[in-house]
Amino acid sequence: MQRKKILSIFGTRPEAIKMAPVIKELEKRSDEFESVVVVTAQQREMLDQVLTVFNIKPDYDLNIMQPNQTLAQLTSRVLMKLDPILEVEKPDVVLVHGDTTTSFVASLAAFYHQIKIGHVEAGLRTWDKYAPYPEEMNRQMTDCLSDIYFAPTVLSKANLLQANVPEEKIFVTGNTVVDALQQTTKHGFSHEITKKWDPDSKKVLLTCHRRENFGKPMEQVFKSVIKMVETYSDLEVIYPVHPNPNVKKQAEEMFKNQKRIHLIDPLDVIDFHNCMSECYFIMSDSGGVQEEAPSLGKPVLVLREVTERPEGLETGILKLVGTCEKTILNAVEKLMMDSEYYQSLTKQNNPYGDGYASIKIVNLLNEQ
Ligand code: UD1
Ligand code: UDP
């Protein structure tokens, strides 16, 4: 039997975490598939953390990251470097993930070579061009170019239908992040970071890095966090800061004298997932964190005006608070003071997946 050649392309931390279970499944079934892995390394250090954890050895590493890179620089570098690889490899399917610049440009490069494109995590939408920016258009453009759509939920399938994607090309698989989470979380987790924490305090895990939050919105978020620890003396905040200079500078300036707000380097995914499961609640503008938190029963205050992941809003575990101080502090008060409400959030199923998405995706690839 002729093996199918699947060439997977990714470059950032979230894509790597969510593609790792698919790559591992393809590797396991090497009698059916030849798996070729291309990393753009849009995010050098954060990508490498994930590759190490999941023991993925790329066949090609484009190594394109530059400090404070612009979207146009990224786009042109990825496109030019992928072109000769696709020319040589001629895979049956190119797999891309999500909504990053790597995802969109990789699908464009594959289209130029008339190679079939499979989009993992297809169909997420806010329908708002600039929120999140530029991810909403990255995923719309990727979906425009794709041939096989792995939609995580029925809602993402409905979005694709609304965009006139033929139904027979869409497969609801769940999100592969739930598969990844099952491999990373452990009972009895202990880490040098958690050992240093005050055992009697409640931990809040914070992440904030979106381009549309740079400047004023991020300043408002950080002010709310300072107000929050001033109001609740039993709260301690752990913030693994994104290495983007726009984020790092603002976080270091605003939190420099804060004893109960701990700025740390990005955690590897095992440490981060386990810190999630140790904390009391999460504040984040991340996409992936919104999908992971329901599995761990941790409420998330979503620091965005809109989300493409509304399934968790319906269950209540996600609460859209935007970046306005008053809204954020009201939501914190509810979590801190209303224990019945808090408890009701912590016992839920995950609407984003059941842990079998990668197996479903690889089975479907075999049928193409
Ligand atoms: C990108 C994705 C965003 C995703 C985020 C995950 C796009 C358009 N956006 O964000 O959807 O949520 O990744 O983190 O693709 N840097 C380092 N080391 C790293 C990573 C980043 O130094 O390992 C610094 C570099 O200076 C780099 C900058 O951060 O230039 C920005 O990285 P980039 O991947 O461009 O970030 P975003 O586009 O904000
Ligand atoms: N994450 C991590 N270490 C950290 C912070 C986040 O491994 O210090 C993981 C998190 O569990 C999730 C993913 O990174 O799986 C989210 O990445 P990010 O927030 O950078 O991107 P987004 O999901 O917003 O695109």
UniProtKB/TrEMBL annotation:
Gene3D superfamilies: Glycogen Phosphorylase B. Residues 26-365 form the UDP-N-acetylglucosamine 2-epimerase domain. It comes from Vagococcus hydrophili. It is an enzyme of class 5 (isomerase). Pfam families: Epimerase_2. Belongs to the UDP-N-acetylglucosamine 2-epimerase family. The gene is wecB. GO terms for molecular function: UDP-N-acetylglucosamine 2-epimerase activity. Its EC number is 5.1.3.14. Keywords: Isomerase. This is UDP-N-acetylglucosamine 2-epimerase (non-hydrolyzing).
